[in-house]
Amino acid sequence: GMKNNEASFSSLALQRAAVSQANQALTEGQELGKINLTAKTRPAQLNQSQTKALSPEDGRMHRVLRIDATLSPRDPKAPGQFGRPVVVPHGKEKEVERRWKEGNFNVYLSDLIPVDRAIEDTRPAGCAEQLVHNNLPTTSIIMCFVDEVWSTLLRSVHSVLNRSPPHLIKEILLVDDFSTKDYLKDNLDKYMSQFPKVRILRLKERHGLIRARLAGAQKATGDVLTFLDSHVECNIGWLEPLLERVYLSRKKVACPVIEVINDKDMRCPVMAGGLFSIDKNYFFELGTYDPGLDVWGGENMELSFKVWMCGGEIEIVPCSRVGHIFRNDNPYSFPKDRMKTVERNLGRVAEVWLDEYKELFYGHGNHLIDQGLDVGNLTQQRELRKKLKCKSFKWYLENVFPDLKAPIVRASGVLINVALGKCISIRNTTAILEDCDGSSQLQQFNYTWLRLIKHGAWCLAPVPDNGALRLHLCDNRNKGLRWLHKSTSVFRPELVNHLVFGNYHQLLCLEGDFTQKTLKVAPCDPAKPDQKWKFENYYED
Ligand code: UD2
Ligand code: MN
Hints:
Blueprint: H1 4-7, H2 13-36, H3 48-51, E1 61-63, H4 93-100, H5 107-112, E2 131-133, E3 139-145, H6 150-163, E4 169-176, H7 186-192, E5 198-202, H8 208-219, E6 224-228, E7 232-234, H9 239-248, E8 252-257, E9 276-279, H10 280-285, H11 299-309, E10 313-324, H12 338-353, H13 358-364, H14 379-387, H15 393-399, E11 409-417, E12 422-427, E13 430-435, E14 445-448, E15 453-455, E16 458-462, E17 469-473, E18 483-484, H16 488-491, E19 500-502, E20 507-513, E21 518-523, E22 533-538
Bound molecules: uridine-diphosphate-N-acetylgalactosamine and manganese (II) ion.
């Protein structure tokens, strides 16, 4: 579910980069859900520092795990074995449909596939030969779930047990975030009792995944925390390279490949969020997650900014492969409105970490003018940032994400009234309607990410209480200069193509009057064609 990203951050180019990676995986994931539940990941190239290995003779290192307990499956002919695609049997389509909503993926097929099936080794060449230190730290696997599908939960646990060196797994902590399904109670206890390393922690109320992970972290006894979703499949040799990175540098957060990742430099500005290993003490030094984040969403941003800005690093480790079922939507309910929850979480993150760039975040939301989004108390988070002596967001953008080109302009060129076929032109300190002339400087406007209609340093805005237009010196922080265009589609579909000014309570739309050649703002009316506007060029959707 990447829907959260539509909530507010969607246009922040930062998030876009992360999302576009994730979306690719999402497309693949839909396939996973429907067809074969196999981890499909594109092999990455290893860079030199990753292939360079010490010699095993030096006695301090050994090869990653090669024996995969699932390689001689109990039933080699079972569906999905070796990651083979599974086809829905004829006549079962109804059942597939009926059971889909249990997990928002093909639950019917998942149940047909053995919980300890074999999967293909998707690692790039060379990974199996890699050496890791003999004295790697141990890890606690923390897997939170709420109403997870039985077979996928079991498959996640089996994949960890079967494909990790036992001595590195201190424990597997299953954190039950107040599930309602009966099979997740006694049956789960009974099933897991055959594995001494599996502990089940039951939360007494719904915590949401962020605080559920924190509850797990509090109980963990391993040196490193490894977080996983409850519908994953770890591949052979997935764990050692993660722990190796943390071992070599305790401020490194190591993520497995779960999707197509920019593998040029292995630097990852924002992690996907679900799957990573982090030194336990370091996690607590960083103040864990902001415990004020609710249910789902934004915590990956928070931790990513915090890690990078406060002296750590995030790295995608190409030899570590973990499959994950991406779903179109969360299969569980949100205690409060989903969109508001995620928006509030992102608001907290923006307020604490984004410095002056937080204006971009607010400028992008689907809310008209920001409504003083109540993000709760941030004192502790801000103090933490000071205490950790973290760098600025500007530093982050310049150093961690130098190839980020935050697009400044969303639309440009002449601004044409759709019904009248006339264009806006600058006259002294005001604007009028004229015949369109693309070569006239006076008719050139930029519509920016902060929703300003700019002509050079000047911005179009209505005169308060009057409705006439005038030019105003642009100021990115002045919310009284912002116009909504296009992005209104989410909020009020009928307002697409309008240029809307105002707030939730009072929407005013730019309107042209051809006889008078004048412009004004007037109450929005979808039936009025002279309120519809188009820029010459658009740079997004
Ligand atoms: C992604 C991450 C997920 C998390 C989320 C943003 C990956 C693969 N997944 O979304 O880990 O970072 O973005 O917050 O990077 N859960 C609970 N309680 C809840 C809600 C969820 O325990 O209230 C569990 C859930 O059962 C699952 C895990 O938390 O095991 C993550 O939830 P998800 O799978 O719905 O999130 P996902 O993969 O869409
Ligand atoms: Mn997930």
